[in-house]
Amino acid sequence: MRKIEPRRYRPVFAAVLLLGALLAAAYIVRQRLEPPVAEGVRVELVAAVDLEGGASAGPAWSPDGSVLAVASVAGDVILMRASGDVVQRLKHGAAATSLAWSPDSTHIAAASWGEMRVWRASDGRESARVVAGEIYEVKGWSGRDEVVTWNGEEYFTGWHRDTGQMIETQFVSIGQQQLVPSPDGKLATWQSGAGGAWTVFQVDDGPAEEWSLQGHSGSIQRVAWSPDSSEIAGACDDGIVVWKARTGKLDRVLWAPPAAVKSIDWNYPGSMLLVLTEDGSATVIDARSGTEIGASRADPRSGATWSRDGHHFAVVTSATQPQLLALRVVDVE
Question: How many distinct structural domains can be found in the chain?
């Protein structure tokens, strides 16, 4: 019998050991990357409304959280309660590219290039229609009677809610437009240089100070202020992270998103984050631990936004089956 040399098996044995080590390492990494999932809570669908041709703007909750608005490619602006009841179908004509609620939730404005309309939400009555070359988007309201539009460059114009008369025009530089102000109006952050670096600075009457967001890896792609202005959430190479606003220091790494982040939105109590990603999902995570609470399909080209009640949120689904979805986070324990 021919003697078998053990050394002939050593490369095979070593390869088996290496493969086993790699598999074990991959399992450990997978376990670490898979986020914890919350027990006792879930995301459930409350209502769905079909959108002819898809969404062109929105979704947008009224400030009081009672009504949800979305503009369709077909030229309608649909107002829906969180329960799913459609209360108004407003006719804009061309597909609106922007929406904005009045601060008191009584009116909604919609704009397409060259035209803006304002309606009373309670009965759908049109209160103003403005046709002007300086209108590109509606950006918001200044008080309860003035709608503010943007010309696509550096000029913002205020229009009276009921008469449609021009009130004023202001110049705002491109740099100033990049500022993301805190909810309390005391601080702001902006991308201050190449490489995705962001700076926080004071905008109130205090001393002129500024500091960088630090402690993370890679460039910062998206930021969102917490409702109490104490923290800033953002997306970077580490995933979804949170910095302390007053120091810029990294406080915690929350969650590794499955794809590039399109938007981040805090709920009103500051307990959860809604993260919209390019893979077509909107995921709710715990703002302290990063625990996944639930998710919904969502069109990454549209928004994902919380209602003021802190539990309902809204998304728009993709063009293959375009719908406005109202969802909520519920406790099932």
Answer: 1
